[in-house]
User: Which sequence fits this backbone?
């Protein structure tokens, strides 16, 4: 493995020098899904020239893609591993439980375990705070968007009591969230049809107004909507209006919306998403245009992600690559044990 990494680093330096964009590989990181090379461009090298050579780098290294990333003032090249491995949710939980600081954070209402960052450290996200009022999860089929939503909810249920966090789930596919049917955190049975979804949103809107009038935010309510774009098309303007009220005013009442979609297009999502979902978890999408709409920032590179849980966590205009912790449906029994421990 080490020899191969050195060879790839030499290839990168050779290619950049050949295209008159000299740079030196100063180190790197190996994650379960990607290899990241740290790059130090020469003083005369324009960063835009390096970015324009992503396809040439991928061809030279014989990989499906190469992604050029700027992070904390440094430049990196990311490529996929040929021997990619998943990050298992229960194993990541075990890793987090060995760290007292992580456990204290996970006990705070709304804090979720997302996956593993490029540095091998668990990535946490705190829902419902001013910077993270709501979350959009986007990605094409096979990207792992429903898995990402399952992981967020599973983390909440495993580490926070029902008196602090309650769940309301709308799942048109009626398949990916069965494990939560027995969780004490679930407010009511999972909605599958558009008319059921409208009833849930009507109730939640009334609850939001009641809480605002009473000045209360607890317990926090997390609304998860899978296949958001499809639901909006089926439910029409009335449903979209209810959802718009929730994302615009819900945070002050302790309500957080997590929306999943495989159709991150402006025509489908309209103005609902823009400005109301400042935090995005973006998996592989089919084009640069979809990447722009899904991420909300230019040149995110989401169209070059590897799929199967390879995501970008985008907040405050910055993006962090994260491998979503994988929780297969076959692990529902094991997850159930954590629900009630």
Assistant:
């Amino acid at each position: 493995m080490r020899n191969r990494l050195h060879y790839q680093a030499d290839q990168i330096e050779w290619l950049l020098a050949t295209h008159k964009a000299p740079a030196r590989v100063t180190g790197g990181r190996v994650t379960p899904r990607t290899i990241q090379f740290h790059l130090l461009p020469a003083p005369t090298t324009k960063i835009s020239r390096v970015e324009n050579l992503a396809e040439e780098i991928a061809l030279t290294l014989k990989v499906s893609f190469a992604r050029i990333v700027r992070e904390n003032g440094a430049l990196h090249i990311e490529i996929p591993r040929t021997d990619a491995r998943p990050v298992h949710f229960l194993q990541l939980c075990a890793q987090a439980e060995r760290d007292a600081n992580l456990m204290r954070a996970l006990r705070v209402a709304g804090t979720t375990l997302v996956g593993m960052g490029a540095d091998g450290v668990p990535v946490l996200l705190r829902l419902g705070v001013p910077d993270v009022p709501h979350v959009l999860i986007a990605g094409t089929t096979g990207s792992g968007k429903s898995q990402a939503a399952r992981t967020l909810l599973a983390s909440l249920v495993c580490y926070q009591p029902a008196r602090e966090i309650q769940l309301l789930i709308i799942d048109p596919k009626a398949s990916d969230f069965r494990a939560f049917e027995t969780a004490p955190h679930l407010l009511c049975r999972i909605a599958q049809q558009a008319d059921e979804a409208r009833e849930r949103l009507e109730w939640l809107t009334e609850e939001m107004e009641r809480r605002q009038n009473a000045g209360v935010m607890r317990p926090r309510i997390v609304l998860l909507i899978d296949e958001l774009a499809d639901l909006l098309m089926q439910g029409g303007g009335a449903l979209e209006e209810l959802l718009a009220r929730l994302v615009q005013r819900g945070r002050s009442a302790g309500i957080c919306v997590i929306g999943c979609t495989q159709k991150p297009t402006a025509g489908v999502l309209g103005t609902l998403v823009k400005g109301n979902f400042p935090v995005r978890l973006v998996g592989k999408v089919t084009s640069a245009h979809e990447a722009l709409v899904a991420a909300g920032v230019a040149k995110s590179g989401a169209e070059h992600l590897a799929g199967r849980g390879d995501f970008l966590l985008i907040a405050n205009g910055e993006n962090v690559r994260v491998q979503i912790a994988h929780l297969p449906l076959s692990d529902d029994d094991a997850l159930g044990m954590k629900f009630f421990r």
